[in-house]
Design brief:
Elements: E1 3-6, E2 11-14, H1 34-41
Antiparallel strand pairs: 1-2
Length: about 40
């Protein structure tokens, strides 16, 4: 696994990301469903 240093604190994090291509969308207009997306990210 590859790691990168994050910010000034020097925290090491993996280079793999969550990705955002498949965030949940609203049925009526196709926009991102913010409430559900925030739950996933948290």
């Amino acid at each position: 696994m590859q790691y990168r240093t994050l910010g000034k604190l020097g925290t090491k994090v993996s280079a793999l990301g969550f990705g955002c291509m498949r965030l949940p969308t609203n049925d009526k207009d196709g926009t991102i469903n913010r409430e559900e997306a925030i739950k996933l990210i948290r």
